[in-house]
Structures are given as structure tokens and as C-alpha cells.
Amino acid sequence: MTRAAALTFLLIVLAACGGAPGPTSATVAPTPCSPNVEITGFSDVLDGREYGARRTWPVAGLSGLAVDRDGALLALSDRSVLFTLDPRTREPTSATPLVDGTGASLDAEGIAVEGDGTRLVTSESDVAVLRFDRAGRVEGRLDVPPDVADRARRNETLEGVAVLAPGGPVVAAMEGALDGDDPGVRRFVTWPGAGWTYRPDPGLDVSELAATGDGRLLVIERSYTSGVGNTVHLALADPARATDGALPRTLLADLGACPSLGATAQQAQANPLLDNVEGMTVLGRTIDGALRVLLVSDDNQDPEQTTRLYDVLVRLPPG
């Protein structure tokens, strides 16, 4: 079997396992972005969509992804709505509005699911992680320590959240630097624990975290430059090797180096496949051990941006 035929066979197997994206305009066979990362397809099935009967919500501003206990996909809108997606078609099947303990909407950014189904949602305005039950009712909150929360900059607070291991610590990332910190350093807050510092590539902020299942964290770093477009890096952090509270980091790929797969963009993008990638979750593993990862871009409810899903294979370096 040729290498091309083997790759085609692998993609067919993944599709049969329910990992295929929804409708896509990809017309070019995928090739790796780096030795560790390959975007195998993309889908614009959610772009411009609305969902609901008596009340309609735009399926937009998606900033977080997670897999529920039953295998359904959860997509979090920063407009305080949690959508459930069919894991095969990626179509929305339900919508749950989220409010905090006072009944106010959230500036929701990241989501993770604990073993009992509890949803952990970061709120950028509250600078906290809120716990919700499956019906969308608030069950509690994880507050950021005052020495971190009091120095957080507006609109640069909590973004990604992950459960590092079953029953293990919850980790949430600050998007930007704290007042008084080295401007190149970001704080990762943990419950329990003292947290860590993390240094993304220069000029990039942290937008999302996902646990790899072996104690490490995938990290999305990104920025936007007008007239140029989005820069999106996928990195790996290893808490087990932290020194003096600093997380070691390995760059896995600059997603701008990935093939465009025939994608188009309405705004200027060096790679038309990219947009404002903010959400990420791990779907599972392939038969050869690669992580099956799903990314989503936040369109900021801007008609010149795109809500796009990306299916990604990530081959982790040895731990």
C-alpha cells in the first residue's frame, strides 16, 4: 500500500468512527503542518447559523469546546449560551442559556467537563470558574486568588480551562499578563495548588487549554494583526517538569504553516484557513496513538469572520 493510500484509508476509518467533520469546502488533500500536527479537515457548518424555536440564539462567538459524558459535543458562546452539537454532523441539537448566581449573563470563555458531568465555565467578567449542572444551574464557583484577580487587566482575564486528570486539579489560564508581571508571562491558576507561570511565543496570548490525558496540556496561543490576519500556535505544556513554578513549553505547530485545504476567508488572512481560533477539545485517539483534536474559531459576531471547526491530529512528543 502506498503512503497516500494508507493516509486515505486512515481518514476513512476515522470518519467511520464518527470523527469526520460536517459539510466542508476542503478540496485539497491534507499534509502535515509540522512533524507533530496535521489538520485533516474543516467545516463551516455552524457559520451564520441560528438555533431555537420560541427563542433563537446565533451560533456565534464560540470560545470553548468540550466533550460531554455521553459523547456529545459542547460549544460555549461568549454570549452566555451553551450549545450541544451532534458529534457526527456537528449540527446544534440544544441550547442552554447560562447565568451567574445573580441571574446576570456571563462573558463565558472556556469550558471543561468533570467526571460527574459538572460543567466548569470560565467567566472573564467574574474572574472565576463557575460550576454548572447539566441543566445549566449554578452549583458553585472557584475564585481566583486575590493577588491574581486584583492585577488582571480588563478583557485579558480567564480564558481556557481544563481538568488535568480525572479527579485531579482544575487549571485555568489568564489570557494576558498581570499588572506588575513580566509582560511575556501568563498565569495558570490551579484548584488546588499554587498555579504556574507560562511563557507563550512573543506577541501571543493564551486562548485555550485541553488536557492530553497523560498529565500534560495542549495550549492555543494566538493574536490578530489588522491587514495580516490571525497567528495561531499550538503548544504543549508539561506540569510534571515545572521548575520554580514555570511550565516548560514545546511548540507543536504554527497553524499558519498548515495547507489552506481550499478554504476561503472574507477578511485578510495570510492563510485563509485560519480565523480567531479560541476553542479546543480532545475527542480521543487514533489507533496509532495520535490525539484527535477539535478546534473552533470565534467569529466575534462579525460578518467578515467565520465560525469554523477544524479536525486536527496531534502526535505528542515523548513525555
From TrEMBL:
Residues 1-26 form the signal peptide. It comes from Actinomycetospora succinea. This is Phytase-like domain-containing protein. The keyword Metal-binding does not apply. Keywords: Signal. It comes from the Bacteria. Residues 58-300 form the Phytase-like domain.
